[in-house]
């Protein structure tokens, strides 16, 4: 049975071709990919573990601390070392996590954070 899935972390599926409309999804407004799985696994059997710079497993909603000053691409914002970021979101990518700063959603590389 052919259907379409989002690989941006939201887990969205559609019976027909379309775009992901998952609020906050890394692939929001991008085309979904065709999937022909019969068991509902969508070819994603392996468990993705996102780890911080020390190798500690991160979970949805964890707080992390920056271990390096970071410049935000496309803006004049500078995130300082030691800043604590609360309520991270896992996006299905082992090297990145999402968080909100005000109304802006940003992505952090996990190699620059440690779990608090």
Which class do the helix and strand fractions yield? mainly beta
CATH topology-level name of the largest domain: SH3 type barrels
| Beta-strand fraction estimate | 25-35%
Question: In the CATH classification, which architecture of the largest domain applies?
Answer: Roll
Largest sheet: 3 strands, antiparallel
Estimate percent helicity: under 10%
Explained architecture:
The protein has 116 residues and is mainly beta. Helix content is 0%, strand content 29%. The protein folds into two domains: 1-46, no CATH class; 64-115, Roll (SH3 type barrels). The chain has strands at 3-5, 13-14, 33-35, 64-66, 70-71, 78-79, 84-85, 89-90, 96-101, 104-109, 113-115. The protein has a three-stranded antiparallel β-sheet with strand order 2-1-3, with no helix packed on it. A three-stranded antiparallel β-sheet has the order 7-4-11, with no helix packed on it. Strands 8-9-10 form a three-stranded antiparallel β-sheet, with no helix packed on it. Strand 9 and strand 10 form a beta hairpin.
